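User: Predict the complex.
Assistant: Input components as received:
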Amino acid sequence: MTRQDLRDSWARRQESLRKGFYRFSRNPVSVVGLVVVALVALVAVFGPSIAPYPQHARAYVNFGDAKQPPNRKYLFGTDIIGRDILSRLLFAVRPAVLTGVLVQATVVPIGTVLGMIGGYFPGTWISTLIMRAADVFVSVPALILALAVCAVLQPTFTNSMIAVSIASWPWYGRLVYGMTSSLRNEYFVKAAELAGASKARILFREILPNVVSPLLTKVTLDIPYVIMLSASLSYVGLGEQPPIPSLGNMVSDGVKYIPDQWWIVVAPALAIVVIVLGFNLLGDGLRDMLAMEDS
Amino acid sequence: MRSIRFLAQRLVYGFMVLIGLSVVIFLIARVVPGDPARMALGPRAPEEVVQRLREEMGLDKPLYTQYFMWAGGVLRGDLGKSLVTRRPVAQDIQEFLGATVELALFAGTFMATAGIAFGVLSAKYNNSWVDNTVRLLSYLGIVTPGFVFAVLFLLLFGYVWPILPTIGRLSAGIAPPVPITGLMTVDSLLEGKPAVFWDAIKHMVLPGVAMSMSGLAQQARITRSSMIDNVNKDYVLMARSQGISERKIFLKYLLKPSLIPSVSVLGLLFASLFGSAFLIELTFSWPGISRYCMNAMLAKDLNAISAVVLLLGFIVVIVNTVTDAIVSVLDPRIRLGQEQKSA
Amino acid sequence: MGDAIARGRTRYLLDVQDVSVRFRVYEGYLKVLDGVNFNVRPGERVGLVGETGCGKTTLMKTIMRILAPNAAKPEGKVFFEGSELLGTGRGGPRVPRKRAMAMVFQDPTAALNPVFTVGSQMADAIRAAIGTGADRGEVRKIAVDTLKGVSLADPERILNSYPFQLSGGMRQRVCIAMAIAVPGGLLIADEPGTSLDVTIQDQILRLLQDIVQRKGTSVILITHSLGVVREMSDRAYVMYAGSMVENAPSRELVRDPLHPYTRGLVVSVPRLTGGGIAVGISGRIPNYLNPPTGCRFHPRCPHFLPVCSQQRPSFYEVRDGHHVACFLYGGGHDG
């Protein structure tokens, strides 16, 4: 490939990306997703700073103001020991989003590398080991696995992220394994092998770029799944411990007081739905954009 | 005969996965920091007692010996003793398993039938308001975690319109049927008590539907997209061009091929039901293994935890094998192997 | 004049008059077919030549009334054996006699339902033609006979097989069999054999030839190969970007092409004798969202005249039986 060829292909890439962005912006649903995710990201970063009653997210009790429905002073009402739901919610968004992002940041590289190794060197003991391990982890429902791991370790926030990571990596491993296996036999890979390229180079320069597109789609669609998973974990008490608020533990607190103090449960539940919905819409939009770029 | 060989392969594979799973569980359980014997007996128990328990549990032997001891026990049906209740774990589980299985079966059936039905409807009336509504609802279904549905249902149907019970398996004052299968619905019918049957069903509705929502949504989506894909396939066009009736085209040329991806996914979805069962059971005070498991996890009752996870893995493997079998019946290409002769 | 037209109309087995078809897409309308005029006489073999994307298959689908759901209602008229087809709602050839038209699809693998046996599908097709109450044995017999008629050995085994168990050539023959199982007036063959080996393709084409001779059916043979057209058809149309540009007896068409596009096609066929590399036609097929005004070929035409971008040329009979739609040979209304 000449330099001019490289420049041409880069120009073409940019052009199709531009077209992709245009298409993306034409779809109102995806744009909504983008907006929601942007808002959520802002809240995750600045939430604690803008919360009206930040001290309510720590050990705080004020029975005088307890059980208040949403009003001017406490926009989402207060819980049974007088803490402002809105402030706690603003604090709770950060760990949720953090989990989503961090888990993906850990799981995707590890899963991808393992999957590539497994797919590129099939039949070797290391490949079989990796893939069988992935199969084993996949055969147990994710939540159960995460629960089991969490149960074995101390119920802390970090441990819940570890648990979710352990439950998530096999999906990436298998996806990449499948793709690598089929790509292995493509001509451009064989050409690189013949040219004497090192294994690592082939994996990272030839195979990886072709794997990126479906991987990216999966990643964006998985972030909300991870958020849901970690919310489920904290719902049963494995995650941030009280008094630190997390979306899941706020919901489980609130369930006890249905229906009289319904706002205690509805606020965090709605928050979860909105966050997950936003990421999903964004992910779908990205997927459509990337898919059309391929075809 | 190929199909039997295919099934046998899947079973063997599943079995190997189970073995792998058991190793992983075992290792996780043993990796736990802390001394299980000491934890079981509490900090005040004298050292000799703890030591005796250690020996009894085999904690002083090398890891692989411990594994084989445990695995051997499992195969015999002995899942060890619970450190909390002191009874054989198998016995504990038996009490609670029926409740969870029954709920899962209910949710699973509902999920499969409603999911496929909605998917088919949505595809048939593609781009109409029916389609758009189903798409929107299934999107919301996927996006909302199971426990949020549980809470929502609790609120809406337990309090706002209190038409369905929200706690437990039977109303207070109704005697449970003799536990033959562990499934109250079946048992009550076997005993000839339809009133109990209906009561049990009513109790299953809210938790069951909440549990199935996510899977239902995914099922509907996959069925829908698979049918829409097939609507434009050449063989459908050809059938139409041959003058074959629309009804036949729908049933034979659209439905059967579309069901293949749809059913394949059922296995996975059913497995995920057990995941969400956990939270749903807690919300509706359903006396299933989730409560048992929760206590076990809090008390670090390793035998119980391992047993439950292993059991669930087992159920998932069975379900997946059954699903594979059904798919191979539907799709002759899988059953008979793709022998592509060169064109 | 009206009488002659009326007489002309009844002479044709299939008469497509001024048919236009648009497809609704996100960005607007794809104007795929634009005023197509096309006809087939009884017993005639008509070739239809055009490059990929010119609308050949869409035209056939319009005739068979199996267009995709996003097609806007087609304009124009299609007469088959005297009855008009387009006016009567969508959904398959609902002509008075069923299965008077049959189509062999381009890709035999995609045309067969993968999860049912060949026999099952053939039975469906046969039943649709002769009546759903037909006796099973009778249907089976027809199927077996037809399979023998397309030179397939061991018809029983084939009927019990699934499509993926057969080779590409066999699948193509099965598709042909399904089309001719019940005798009809018209057979449409969409690029038969193009997805197969050249030798197999040759066999398939000869098979079609044979069938047509035996049964006296009319055939529309769609292809992108001028060689096939010359050998296998009596008369041929050349199609470009949604309308017909030339129509002549096949040999004459290849020997003496008049329309600049046809000339380009003939010249671009590489020859083993005579030396020189083949020349192509510059440019590409137009964007159907915003097709060129007037004659759709004008942007690529080496003999462009100003009128070409203003008006659409209509068919002009240059010689007996040889029609061209080009202002070089006579204008539409001014000519």
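Confidence is low (pLDDT under 50) at residues 1-9, 91-97 of chain C.
Let me know if you want any component modeled separately.
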